[in-house]
Description:
Blueprint: H1 3-32, H2 35-41, E1 42-50, E2 54-56, H3 58-68, E3 74-88, E4 91-103, E5 108-122, E6 125-140
Parallel strand pairs: 1-6
Antiparallel strand pairs: 1-2, 3-4, 4-5, 5-6
Amino acid sequence: xxxxxxxxxxxxxxxxxxxxxxxxxxxxxxxxxxxxxxxxxxxxxxxxxxxxxxxxxxxxxxxxxxxxxxxxxxxxxxxxxxxxxxxxxxxxxxxxxxxxxxxxxxxxxxxxxxxxxxxxxxxxxxxxxxxxxxxxxxxxxxxxxxxx
Length: 148
């Protein structure tokens, strides 16, 4: 293996790790409603795609999250079964499952689905360029589990 081969392999591995990390950053930002952190998670030309809507551009993406998450709920979601595939220099696709919970005085919701993130890495910084969200199941678990 040549030095060039080793450098190329290292770049791929570092890109994959950076892409995985930005998906975790996304989860932290959503759960804590840290809008600055969420803004840094997406590229300026980001696309957010779900079954019910799509949003183009970081400002539109963040505005969508602000609207969707405005209710004062305890929230947590878990990103699991993550796989990352290096596509080309500066681009990694991350696929993962997620489970989420929302809990409030009059609600307790559990749901799950999957994310497909196209992550762009520029100057060592990973950001989500496209996020596809598919919610498979979501529903109330009232009365009972997760009530305050």
